[in-house]
Amino acid sequence: MTARSYEVRTYGCQMNVHDSERLSGLLEDAGYVRAPKGEPADVVVFNTCAVRENADNKLYGNLGHLAPAKAERPGMQIAVGGCLAQKDRDTIVRKAPWVDVVFGTHNVGSLPVLLERARVEQEAQVEILESLDVFPSTLPTRRESAYAAWVAISVGCNNTCTFCIVPALRGKEKDRRPGDVLAEIETLVGEGVIEVTLLGQNVNAYGSDMGDREAFSKLLRSCGRIEGLERVRFTSPHPRDFTDDVIAAMAETPNVMHQLHMPLQSGSDTMLRAMRRSYRQDRYLGIIERVRAAMPDAAISTDIIVGFPGETDEDFEQTLHTVREARFAAAFTFQYSKRPGTPAATMDGQVPKEVVTERYQRLLALQEEISWAENRTQVGRTLEVLVAEGEGRKDHDTARLSGRAPDNRLVHFERPADGVRPGDMVSVEITYAAPHHLLAERPPLAIRRTRAGDAWERRTATPAPSPGVLLGMPSVGAPVAVGAPTATAGCCD
Ligand code: SF4
Protein backbone atom coordinates (compact mmCIF):
# COMPACT_ATOMS: atom_id res chain seq x y z
CA MET A 1 0.00 0.00 0.00
CA THR A 2 1.44 3.43 -0.87
CA ALA A 3 1.79 5.88 1.97
CA ARG A 4 -0.72 8.70 2.17
CA SER A 5 0.71 12.12 1.39
CA TYR A 6 0.30 15.33 3.37
CA GLU A 7 0.74 19.07 3.00
CA VAL A 8 0.87 21.62 5.83
CA ARG A 9 -0.06 25.23 4.99
CA THR A 10 1.26 27.64 7.60
CA TYR A 11 0.07 31.16 8.42
CA GLY A 12 1.39 33.59 11.05
CA CYS A 13 4.34 33.74 13.41
CA GLN A 14 7.43 31.62 14.16
CA MET A 15 5.51 29.75 16.83
CA ASN A 16 3.22 28.49 14.06
CA VAL A 17 6.15 27.77 11.76
CA HIS A 18 7.67 25.64 14.49
CA ASP A 19 4.31 24.01 15.30
CA SER A 20 4.09 23.09 11.62
CA GLU A 21 7.45 21.34 11.90
CA ARG A 22 5.85 19.33 14.67
CA LEU A 23 2.72 18.61 12.64
CA SER A 24 4.92 17.34 9.79
CA GLY A 25 6.94 15.24 12.23
CA LEU A 26 3.81 13.73 13.74
CA LEU A 27 2.38 12.86 10.35
CA GLU A 28 5.64 11.31 9.14
CA ASP A 29 5.89 9.37 12.39
CA ALA A 30 2.42 8.04 11.61
CA GLY A 31 3.52 6.91 8.14
CA TYR A 32 2.48 9.83 5.94
CA VAL A 33 4.92 11.27 3.39
CA ARG A 34 5.24 14.89 2.34
CA ALA A 35 3.44 15.55 -0.96
CA PRO A 36 5.79 16.72 -3.73
CA LYS A 37 5.50 20.47 -4.38
CA GLY A 38 2.53 21.33 -6.59
CA GLU A 39 0.95 17.89 -6.32
CA PRO A 40 -2.34 17.30 -4.53
CA ALA A 41 -2.05 15.77 -1.06
CA ASP A 42 -4.25 13.17 0.63
CA VAL A 43 -4.25 15.24 3.81
CA VAL A 44 -4.13 19.04 3.81
CA VAL A 45 -3.54 20.70 7.17
CA PHE A 46 -4.13 24.43 7.69
CA ASN A 47 -2.10 25.82 10.60
CA THR A 48 -3.96 29.09 11.04
CA CYS A 49 -3.26 32.49 12.58
CA ALA A 50 -5.91 34.68 14.19
CA VAL A 51 -4.13 38.00 14.41
CA ARG A 52 -5.08 39.55 11.09
CA GLU A 53 -8.41 41.15 10.34
CA ASN A 54 -10.41 38.91 8.00
CA ALA A 55 -8.23 35.87 8.78
CA ASP A 56 -11.43 33.84 9.07
CA ASN A 57 -12.79 34.99 5.69
CA LYS A 58 -9.50 34.04 4.08
CA LEU A 59 -9.57 30.61 5.72
CA TYR A 60 -13.12 29.91 4.55
CA GLY A 61 -12.13 31.08 1.06
CA ASN A 62 -9.21 28.63 1.03
CA LEU A 63 -11.36 25.82 2.39
CA GLY A 64 -13.95 26.61 -0.30
CA HIS A 65 -11.29 26.21 -2.99
CA LEU A 66 -10.47 22.74 -1.67
CA ALA A 67 -14.08 21.49 -1.55
CA PRO A 68 -14.24 20.44 -5.25
CA ALA A 69 -10.80 18.75 -5.00
CA LYS A 70 -12.00 16.79 -2.03
CA ALA A 71 -15.20 15.76 -3.81
CA GLU A 72 -13.12 14.35 -6.68
CA ARG A 73 -10.56 12.60 -4.50
CA PRO A 74 -11.98 9.84 -2.33
CA GLY A 75 -10.28 9.58 1.04
CA MET A 76 -8.86 13.09 0.99
CA GLN A 77 -8.95 14.76 4.41
CA ILE A 78 -8.75 18.38 5.53
CA ALA A 79 -7.65 19.45 9.01
CA VAL A 80 -7.66 22.93 10.53
CA GLY A 81 -5.47 23.76 13.53
CA GLY A 82 -3.75 26.78 15.08
CA CYS A 83 -5.07 29.93 16.69
CA LEU A 84 -8.11 30.46 14.49
CA ALA A 85 -9.23 26.89 15.12
CA GLN A 86 -8.77 27.45 18.86
CA LYS A 87 -10.92 30.56 18.57
CA ASP A 88 -13.65 29.44 16.17
CA ARG A 89 -13.94 25.75 17.12
CA ASP A 90 -17.29 24.22 15.96
CA THR A 91 -17.96 27.20 13.70
CA ILE A 92 -15.41 25.81 11.25
CA VAL A 93 -17.25 22.56 10.58
CA ARG A 94 -20.56 24.43 10.55
CA LYS A 95 -19.34 26.79 7.85
CA ALA A 96 -17.20 24.23 6.00
CA PRO A 97 -18.77 20.81 6.66
CA TRP A 98 -16.25 19.12 4.35
CA VAL A 99 -13.51 19.72 6.97
CA ASP A 100 -12.60 16.46 8.73
CA VAL A 101 -10.62 17.60 11.76
CA VAL A 102 -10.41 20.75 13.89
CA PHE A 103 -7.75 20.83 16.59
CA GLY A 104 -6.42 23.62 18.80
CA THR A 105 -3.11 25.10 19.89
CA HIS A 106 -2.92 22.88 22.98
CA ASN A 107 -3.31 19.52 21.28
CA VAL A 108 -1.29 19.49 18.05
CA GLY A 109 -0.15 16.00 19.09
CA SER A 110 -3.69 14.65 18.54
CA LEU A 111 -3.72 15.28 14.79
CA PRO A 112 -2.90 11.75 13.51
CA VAL A 113 -5.41 10.16 15.92
CA LEU A 114 -8.13 12.62 14.98
CA LEU A 115 -7.54 12.02 11.27
CA GLU A 116 -7.81 8.29 11.81
CA ARG A 117 -10.94 8.66 13.94
CA ALA A 118 -12.57 10.89 11.33
CA ARG A 119 -11.78 8.32 8.66
CA VAL A 120 -13.16 5.36 10.62
CA GLU A 121 -16.22 7.12 11.97
CA GLN A 122 -16.82 9.09 8.77
CA GLU A 123 -17.55 12.11 10.91
CA ALA A 124 -15.79 15.41 11.56
CA GLN A 125 -13.72 15.45 14.75
CA VAL A 126 -13.43 18.69 16.71
CA GLU A 127 -11.08 18.59 19.69
CA ILE A 128 -10.00 21.77 21.45
CA LEU A 129 -8.27 21.72 24.83
CA GLU A 130 -8.23 24.69 27.19
CA SER A 131 -4.69 24.12 28.35
CA LEU A 132 -1.55 22.29 27.41
CA ASP A 133 -1.20 18.68 28.48
CA VAL A 134 2.13 17.88 26.79
CA PHE A 135 4.81 20.49 26.09
CA PRO A 136 4.86 20.51 22.28
CA SER A 137 8.62 20.06 22.09
CA THR A 138 8.16 16.50 23.27
CA LEU A 139 6.47 15.74 19.96
CA PRO A 140 8.22 14.46 16.84
CA THR A 141 9.45 17.30 14.66
CA ARG A 142 10.24 17.40 10.96
CA ARG A 143 12.86 20.15 10.88
CA GLU A 144 12.99 22.34 7.79
CA SER A 145 16.69 23.17 7.86
CA ALA A 146 19.82 21.12 8.47
CA TYR A 147 21.91 23.93 9.98
CA ALA A 148 19.62 26.17 12.06
CA ALA A 149 16.81 25.25 14.43
CA TRP A 150 14.03 26.80 16.43
CA VAL A 151 13.92 25.60 20.02
CA ALA A 152 10.81 26.48 22.00
CA ILE A 153 11.58 27.29 25.62
CA SER A 154 8.10 28.45 26.62
CA VAL A 155 4.60 28.73 25.23
CA GLY A 156 1.79 31.12 26.12
CA CYS A 157 2.03 34.53 27.76
CA ASN A 158 1.04 36.01 31.13
CA ASN A 159 0.69 39.56 29.77
CA THR A 160 -2.52 41.14 28.58
CA CYS A 161 -1.52 43.53 25.78
CA THR A 162 -4.80 44.88 24.49
CA PHE A 163 -4.04 44.33 20.80
CA CYS A 164 -2.96 40.72 21.21
CA ILE A 165 -4.93 37.51 20.93
CA VAL A 166 -2.13 35.27 22.21
CA PRO A 167 -3.15 35.10 25.90
CA ALA A 168 -6.69 34.11 24.87
CA LEU A 169 -5.57 31.43 22.44
CA ARG A 170 -2.22 30.15 23.67
CA GLY A 171 -2.95 30.41 27.38
CA LYS A 172 -0.71 31.25 30.34
CA GLU A 173 3.04 30.93 30.01
CA LYS A 174 4.37 27.46 30.45
CA ASP A 175 8.14 27.05 30.69
CA ARG A 176 10.05 24.03 29.61
CA ARG A 177 12.62 22.66 32.04
CA PRO A 178 16.15 23.97 31.27
CA GLY A 179 17.51 20.41 31.20
CA ASP A 180 15.04 19.46 28.46
CA VAL A 181 15.85 22.58 26.43
CA LEU A 182 19.59 21.97 26.66
CA ALA A 183 19.20 18.27 25.87
CA GLU A 184 17.26 19.15 22.72
CA ILE A 185 19.93 21.64 21.66
CA GLU A 186 22.71 19.12 22.28
CA THR A 187 20.90 16.58 20.15
CA LEU A 188 20.44 19.11 17.37
CA VAL A 189 24.12 20.05 17.51
CA GLY A 190 25.01 16.35 17.38
CA GLU A 191 23.12 16.16 14.11
CA GLY A 192 24.95 19.12 12.56
CA VAL A 193 22.96 22.19 13.64
CA ILE A 194 25.22 25.16 14.45
CA GLU A 195 22.61 27.88 15.09
CA VAL A 196 19.60 27.82 17.38
CA THR A 197 16.94 30.42 18.02
CA LEU A 198 15.28 30.16 21.41
CA LEU A 199 11.60 30.78 20.95
CA GLY A 200 8.88 32.02 23.25
CA GLN A 201 5.95 34.41 23.02
CA ASN A 202 7.67 36.37 25.75
CA VAL A 203 11.00 34.62 25.67
CA ASN A 204 12.81 36.51 28.44
CA ALA A 205 10.01 35.97 30.94
CA TYR A 206 11.33 32.40 30.95
CA GLY A 207 11.57 31.23 34.52
CA SER A 208 8.41 32.91 35.84
CA ASP A 209 6.86 29.45 35.95
CA MET A 210 9.79 28.18 38.02
CA GLY A 211 10.18 31.23 40.26
CA ASP A 212 13.65 32.06 38.91
CA ARG A 213 13.95 35.59 37.53
CA GLU A 214 17.41 34.91 36.15
CA ALA A 215 16.52 31.65 34.43
CA PHE A 216 16.77 33.16 30.95
CA SER A 217 20.27 34.58 31.38
CA LYS A 218 21.36 31.28 32.95
CA LEU A 219 19.98 29.44 29.94
CA LEU A 220 21.94 31.70 27.58
CA ARG A 221 25.12 31.04 29.54
CA SER A 222 24.45 27.29 29.47
CA CYS A 223 24.07 27.48 25.68
CA GLY A 224 27.55 28.99 25.68
CA ARG A 225 28.93 25.76 27.10
CA ILE A 226 27.55 23.55 24.30
CA GLU A 227 30.47 22.59 22.14
CA GLY A 228 29.86 22.98 18.43
CA LEU A 229 26.99 25.44 18.88
CA GLU A 230 28.21 28.54 17.05
CA ARG A 231 25.25 30.92 17.14
CA VAL A 232 22.47 31.46 19.64
CA ARG A 233 19.61 33.90 19.06
CA PHE A 234 16.28 34.43 20.76
CA THR A 235 12.92 35.96 19.94
CA SER A 236 10.97 37.84 21.12
CA PRO A 237 11.86 39.54 24.39
CA HIS A 238 9.54 41.93 26.22
CA PRO A 239 11.05 45.22 27.46
CA ARG A 240 9.27 44.78 30.79
CA ASP A 241 11.25 41.64 31.56
CA PHE A 242 14.52 42.74 30.01
CA THR A 243 16.96 42.66 32.90
CA ASP A 244 20.64 43.55 33.11
CA ASP A 245 21.69 39.96 33.77
CA VAL A 246 20.47 39.15 30.24
CA ILE A 247 22.60 41.95 28.79
CA ALA A 248 25.62 40.64 30.70
CA ALA A 249 24.97 37.08 29.54
CA MET A 250 24.70 38.26 25.92
CA ALA A 251 27.90 40.25 26.15
CA GLU A 252 29.90 37.57 27.97
CA THR A 253 28.77 34.42 26.15
CA PRO A 254 30.72 34.20 22.89
CA ASN A 255 28.16 32.19 20.93
CA VAL A 256 25.21 34.44 21.86
CA MET A 257 24.89 36.82 18.93
CA HIS A 258 24.87 40.57 19.42
CA GLN A 259 21.44 40.90 17.96
CA LEU A 260 18.26 41.95 19.68
CA HIS A 261 14.75 42.04 18.30
CA MET A 262 12.78 43.89 20.99
CA PRO A 263 9.25 45.07 20.12
CA LEU A 264 8.61 48.74 20.90
CA GLN A 265 5.02 48.93 19.58
CA SER A 266 4.74 52.65 20.39
CA GLY A 267 7.02 55.41 21.64
CA SER A 268 4.16 57.19 23.38
CA ASP A 269 3.66 56.51 27.08
CA THR A 270 -0.07 57.15 26.68
CA MET A 271 -0.32 54.54 23.94
CA LEU A 272 1.80 52.06 25.86
CA ARG A 273 -0.61 52.46 28.77
CA ALA A 274 -3.58 51.91 26.45
CA MET A 275 -1.84 48.87 25.00
CA ARG A 276 -1.33 47.65 28.57
CA ARG A 277 2.43 47.41 28.05
CA SER A 278 3.99 48.15 31.37
CA TYR A 279 7.24 49.87 30.27
CA ARG A 280 7.56 53.46 29.10
CA GLN A 281 9.68 55.20 26.47
CA ASP A 282 12.49 56.03 28.89
CA ARG A 283 12.79 52.44 30.08
CA TYR A 284 12.89 51.16 26.52
CA LEU A 285 15.60 53.61 25.48
CA GLY A 286 17.48 52.89 28.71
CA ILE A 287 17.68 49.19 27.81
CA ILE A 288 19.00 50.06 24.37
CA GLU A 289 21.62 52.34 25.87
CA ARG A 290 22.81 49.60 28.22
CA VAL A 291 22.83 46.99 25.43
CA ARG A 292 24.94 49.32 23.26
CA ALA A 293 27.29 50.12 26.14
CA ALA A 294 27.92 46.40 26.67
CA MET A 295 27.88 45.46 22.95
CA PRO A 296 28.65 48.43 20.69
CA ASP A 297 28.23 46.21 17.61
CA ALA A 298 24.71 45.05 18.53
CA ALA A 299 22.07 45.23 15.78
CA ILE A 300 18.71 46.09 17.32
CA SER A 301 15.41 45.67 15.53
CA THR A 302 11.82 46.14 16.58
CA ASP A 303 8.08 45.94 15.84
CA ILE A 304 5.94 49.08 15.79
CA ILE A 305 2.18 49.50 15.48
CA VAL A 306 0.94 52.73 13.89
CA GLY A 307 -2.56 54.06 14.51
CA PHE A 308 -3.49 52.23 17.70
CA PRO A 309 -6.92 53.47 18.90
CA GLY A 310 -6.61 56.93 20.43
CA GLU A 311 -3.19 57.68 18.86
CA THR A 312 -2.84 61.45 18.36
CA ASP A 313 -0.30 63.33 16.25
CA GLU A 314 1.66 63.99 19.44
CA ASP A 315 1.66 60.28 20.33
CA PHE A 316 2.92 59.46 16.88
CA GLU A 317 5.64 62.13 17.17
CA GLN A 318 6.82 60.29 20.30
CA THR A 319 7.17 57.11 18.25
CA LEU A 320 9.21 58.97 15.63
CA HIS A 321 11.35 60.45 18.39
CA THR A 322 12.01 57.00 19.90
CA VAL A 323 12.91 55.61 16.48
CA ARG A 324 15.39 58.46 15.92
CA GLU A 325 16.96 57.85 19.34
CA ALA A 326 17.04 54.05 19.12
CA ARG A 327 18.52 53.91 15.60
CA PHE A 328 17.12 50.49 14.83
CA ALA A 329 18.89 48.40 12.22
CA ALA A 330 15.44 47.31 11.07
CA ALA A 331 11.81 47.76 12.09
CA PHE A 332 8.75 45.73 11.23
CA THR A 333 6.03 48.32 11.04
CA PHE A 334 2.32 47.52 11.08
CA GLN A 335 -0.74 49.61 10.45
CA TYR A 336 -3.10 48.86 13.32
CA SER A 337 -6.02 46.71 12.29
CA LYS A 338 -8.64 45.28 14.59
CA ARG A 339 -7.89 41.80 15.78
CA PRO A 340 -11.19 40.20 16.67
CA GLY A 341 -11.43 39.05 20.26
CA THR A 342 -8.90 41.60 21.58
CA PRO A 343 -9.84 44.49 23.91
CA ALA A 344 -8.42 47.05 21.44
CA ALA A 345 -10.88 45.99 18.74
CA THR A 346 -13.75 47.64 20.62
CA MET A 347 -11.87 50.67 21.96
CA ASP A 348 -13.05 54.20 21.23
CA GLY A 349 -10.90 56.45 19.10
CA GLN A 350 -10.20 54.13 16.17
CA VAL A 351 -7.94 56.18 13.90
CA PRO A 352 -9.19 56.82 10.32
CA LYS A 353 -7.48 54.69 7.71
CA GLU A 354 -6.03 57.63 5.75
CA VAL A 355 -4.43 59.06 8.91
CA VAL A 356 -2.90 55.68 9.76
CA THR A 357 -1.56 55.30 6.22
CA GLU A 358 -0.01 58.77 6.20
CA ARG A 359 1.73 58.20 9.55
CA TYR A 360 2.85 54.77 8.45
CA GLN A 361 4.50 56.21 5.32
CA ARG A 362 6.35 58.80 7.40
CA LEU A 363 7.58 56.16 9.82
CA LEU A 364 8.64 53.92 6.98
CA ALA A 365 10.62 56.73 5.31
CA LEU A 366 12.39 57.60 8.57
CA GLN A 367 13.26 54.00 9.37
CA GLU A 368 14.43 53.38 5.80
CA GLU A 369 16.86 56.29 6.13
CA ILE A 370 18.15 54.99 9.49
CA SER A 371 18.44 51.36 8.31
CA TRP A 372 20.43 52.49 5.30
CA ALA A 373 22.75 54.69 7.36
CA GLU A 374 23.27 51.87 9.88
CA ASN A 375 24.01 49.41 7.10
CA ARG A 376 26.53 51.78 5.54
CA THR A 377 28.61 51.52 8.71
CA GLN A 378 29.27 47.91 7.70
CA VAL A 379 30.95 48.77 4.39
CA GLY A 380 34.62 47.81 4.46
CA ARG A 381 34.13 45.31 7.29
CA THR A 382 34.86 41.62 7.01
CA LEU A 383 31.95 39.55 8.29
CA GLU A 384 31.52 35.85 8.86
CA VAL A 385 28.35 34.75 7.09
CA LEU A 386 26.42 31.55 7.69
CA VAL A 387 25.45 30.47 4.19
CA ALA A 388 21.70 30.01 3.97
CA GLU A 389 19.28 28.30 1.68
CA GLY A 390 16.50 30.32 0.09
CA GLU A 391 17.44 33.72 1.59
CA GLY A 392 18.35 35.43 -1.68
CA ARG A 393 15.48 35.45 -4.13
CA LYS A 394 17.65 36.68 -7.00
CA ASP A 395 20.71 34.53 -6.24
CA HIS A 396 20.19 32.37 -9.28
CA ASP A 397 20.16 35.33 -11.71
CA THR A 398 22.93 37.28 -10.00
CA ALA A 399 25.35 34.35 -9.48
CA ARG A 400 25.40 35.15 -5.78
CA LEU A 401 24.78 33.29 -2.55
CA SER A 402 23.23 34.68 0.62
CA GLY A 403 23.43 34.25 4.33
CA ARG A 404 23.33 35.95 7.70
CA ALA A 405 26.03 37.92 9.47
CA PRO A 406 26.47 37.36 13.21
CA ASP A 407 24.10 40.25 13.92
CA ASN A 408 21.53 38.70 11.55
CA ARG A 409 22.00 41.20 8.73
CA LEU A 410 21.26 39.67 5.35
CA VAL A 411 24.40 39.48 3.17
CA HIS A 412 24.58 38.61 -0.53
CA PHE A 413 28.02 37.66 -1.83
CA GLU A 414 29.60 36.55 -5.07
CA ARG A 415 29.39 32.81 -5.55
CA PRO A 416 32.91 31.35 -5.13
CA ALA A 417 34.42 28.92 -7.62
CA ASP A 418 34.92 26.36 -4.84
CA GLY A 419 31.79 24.65 -3.66
CA VAL A 420 30.14 26.19 -0.66
CA ARG A 421 27.07 24.68 0.92
CA PRO A 422 24.23 26.02 3.05
CA GLY A 423 25.46 25.65 6.61
CA ASP A 424 29.09 26.53 5.75
CA MET A 425 30.70 29.77 6.94
CA VAL A 426 32.32 32.31 4.63
CA SER A 427 34.27 35.46 5.43
CA VAL A 428 33.34 38.29 3.09
CA GLU A 429 34.25 41.93 2.76
CA ILE A 430 31.21 44.20 2.55
CA THR A 431 31.47 46.56 -0.42
CA TYR A 432 27.96 48.01 -0.64
CA ALA A 433 25.00 48.62 1.68
CA ALA A 434 21.32 48.87 0.82
CA PRO A 435 18.61 49.58 3.44
CA HIS A 436 17.70 45.91 3.79
CA HIS A 437 20.84 44.00 2.84
CA LEU A 438 24.60 44.13 2.48
CA LEU A 439 26.57 43.17 -0.56
CA ALA A 440 30.03 41.63 -0.97
CA GLU A 441 30.83 42.07 -4.64
CA ARG A 442 33.91 39.89 -4.47
CA PRO A 443 34.15 36.17 -3.69
CA PRO A 444 34.69 35.17 -0.04
CA LEU A 445 38.10 35.75 1.51
CA ALA A 446 37.78 32.41 3.28
CA ILE A 447 35.42 29.44 3.32
CA ARG A 448 34.97 27.27 6.38
CA ARG A 449 33.29 23.95 5.70
CA THR A 450 31.21 22.99 8.72
CA ARG A 451 29.38 20.01 10.18
CA ALA A 452 26.20 21.89 9.29
CA GLY A 453 27.24 21.96 5.63
CA ASP A 454 27.91 18.20 5.83
CA ALA A 455 24.46 17.70 7.38
CA TRP A 456 22.88 19.74 4.58
CA GLU A 457 24.76 17.69 1.99
CA ARG A 458 23.67 14.39 3.56
CA ARG A 459 20.09 15.51 3.67
CA THR A 460 20.11 16.78 0.09
CA ALA A 461 21.89 13.71 -1.26
CA THR A 462 19.40 11.29 0.21
CA PRO A 463 15.86 12.55 -0.14
CA ALA A 464 14.48 9.67 1.89
CA PRO A 465 10.82 8.73 1.44
CA SER A 466 10.36 9.68 5.08
CA PRO A 467 12.77 12.63 5.36
CA GLY A 468 13.53 12.19 9.00
CA VAL A 469 11.75 12.85 12.21
CA LEU A 470 13.48 14.25 15.24
CA LEU A 471 11.88 13.62 18.56
CA GLY A 472 11.83 16.90 20.45
CA MET A 473 13.04 15.37 23.68
CA PRO A 474 16.12 13.27 23.07
CA SER A 475 15.23 10.98 25.95
CA VAL A 476 12.15 9.90 24.03
CA GLY A 477 14.01 8.46 21.05
CA ALA A 478 16.94 8.75 18.71
CA PRO A 479 17.00 11.68 16.29
CA VAL A 480 17.25 11.11 12.56
CA ALA A 481 17.35 14.58 10.99
CA VAL A 482 17.65 18.16 12.09
CA GLY A 483 17.41 21.92 11.40
CA ALA A 484 15.09 24.96 11.00
CA PRO A 485 14.88 28.48 9.61
CA THR A 486 16.69 31.55 10.94
CA ALA A 487 14.88 34.13 12.99
CA THR A 488 12.63 36.80 11.56
CA ALA A 489 10.52 39.36 13.33
CA GLY A 490 8.48 38.40 16.34
CA CYS A 491 4.77 38.19 15.77
CA CYS A 492 3.42 40.29 18.52
CA ASP A 493 5.59 40.84 21.58
S1 SF4 B 1 1.96 41.09 22.61
FE1 SF4 B 1 3.43 39.60 23.37
S2 SF4 B 1 3.65 40.15 25.53
FE2 SF4 B 1 1.77 41.11 24.84
S3 SF4 B 1 0.17 39.63 25.31
FE3 SF4 B 1 0.83 39.25 23.19
S4 SF4 B 1 2.37 37.63 23.36
FE4 SF4 B 1 2.11 38.51 25.40
TrEMBL record:
**Stretches assigned to the TRAM domain:** 376-444
Which residues are involved in binding [4Fe-4S] cluster 2? C157, C161, C164
Domain MTTase N-terminal spans what residues?
Answer: 4-120
**Subcellular location(s) per record:** Cytoplasm
Required co-factor(s) are: [4Fe-4S] cluster
Radical SAM core domain span? 143-374
Reaction catalysed by this enzyme: N(6)-dimethylallyladenosine(37) in tRNA + (sulfur carrier)-SH + AH2 + 2 S-adenosyl-L-methionine = 2-methylsulfanyl-N(6)-dimethylallyladenosine(37) in tRNA + (sulfur carrier)-H + 5'-deoxyadenosine + L-methionine + A + S-adenosyl-L-homocysteine + 2 H(+)
Query: Recorded E.C. number(s)?
Result: 2.8.4.3
Q: Does the keyword Ion transport apply?
A: no
Identify the InterPro entries for this entry. Elp3/MiaA/NifB-like_rSAM, Methylthiotransferase, Methylthiotransferase_CS, Methylthiotransferase_N, Methylthiotransferase_N_sf, MiaB_methiolase, rSAM, rSAM_horseshoe
* Cellular component GO terms held in the UniProt record: cytosol
A GO molecular function assigned to this protein is: 4 iron, 4 sulfur cluster binding
Q: Which family does it belong to?
A: Belongs to the methylthiotransferase family. MiaB subfamily.
> Which PANTHER family does its entry note?
CDK5 REGULATORY SUBUNIT-ASSOCIATED PROTEIN 1 (PTHR43020), MITOCHONDRIAL TRNA METHYLTHIOTRANSFERASE CDK5RAP1 (PTHR43020:SF2)
Q: What does this protein do?
A: Catalyzes the methylthiolation of N6-(dimethylallyl)adenosine (i(6)A), leading to the formation of 2-methylthio-N6-(dimethylallyl)adenosine (ms(2)i(6)A) at position 37 in tRNAs that read codons beginning with uridine.
Q: How does it assemble?
A: Monomer.
Record's protein name: tRNA-2-methylthio-N(6)-dimethylallyladenosine synthase
- Gene name of the record: miaB_1
